Each structure stands twice: as C-alpha cells, then as structure tokens.
Amino acid sequence: MSNDSEIRKGRHCVFDMHVHLVFVTKYRHKVFTDQHLRALERIFHDVCDDFGCRLEEFNGETDHVHLLVNLTPTTQVSKLVNSLKGVSSRYMRRDYPELAKHYWRAQRLWSGSYYAGTAGGAPLATLRKYIEHQNRPD
C-alpha cells in the first residue's frame, strides 16, 4: 500500500486524489464471508489497475464494502464505480454459485446506489482560508 502523503505524477500534472466508496448488497442481504471479501478485494484491485488507479484500502462486512481508491485526474468516478460493481457481480456469481439465492429478481449483487466521498488533504475550512488570503495582483 502507498504512503498517505504520496503525490503521483502524470504527464502534465501532479496529483493526490482519493475517493472513499461504499457499496451495499441488494436488499441489504447479509451475503459475504471472509472468503468472499478476499475475492472481492482481488477483483477490485484488478479493476482499479485497469483504470490506472490504486486500491489503497479495502474492508467490508456481510452486507457492504468500503474502498479507498487513489484516483487519476482523468478517472470518472461513476465509470469506475460501474465497472467495480459490474465486474465484481459477474465474477462473484461465476465463482460462488451459493450466492445465486441473493441474485433473485434483478440478477444483481449490489444495490443500485453507492456512497462516494473525497478523502485526504486539508479540511475544506483550511483550503478556503488559504485561498481567501492569497495576494491579488494590483
């Protein structure tokens, strides 16, 4: 895992962007065991790599998971989320047939909604104060 203060470099920018994601199972079913969570972590890691992102942290409980993803400036969070949820749902259905009973009706593992919040860096109040006190050219 990377250092909390690691700044990444792109072709034309320097960046340090993180998003905290939470996915909840469909109907909040208590689906996951430790084995399922380990498999999900591997899947999420691979999907993040495909997007040029890094899965910094992962954990979960029986009915939801938390991800901390280090993003690139060109990553669209909604596209990343769609891929993370779609790929993981497909692979989990394929590799763990015992989960099929939780897929009834909609054939989906995940709820259609998700939480995404920015993480890291200075608090907003500190950033506002910093920008407010910048010297303006005369």
Automatic annotation (TrEMBL):
What GO biological process terms are annotated to this protein in UniProt? DNA transposition
Superkingdom assignment: Bacteria
What the entry lists under InterPro entries is as follows: Transposase_17 (IPR002686), Transposase_17_sf (IPR036515)
- The residue ranges of the Transposase IS200-like domain are 14-134
Q: Where are the transmembrane segments?
A: none
Which SUPFAM superfamilies does the record match to this protein?
Transposase IS200-like
Give the Gene Ontology MF terms in alphabetical order: DNA binding; transposase activity
**Any Pfam family hit:** Y1_Tnp
**Gene3D superfamilies attached to this UniProt entry:** Transposase IS200-like
NCBIfam families recorded? transpos_IS200
What protein name is recorded for this chain?
Transposase
The lineage is: Bacteria, Bacillati, Actinomycetota, Actinomycetes, Bifidobacteriales
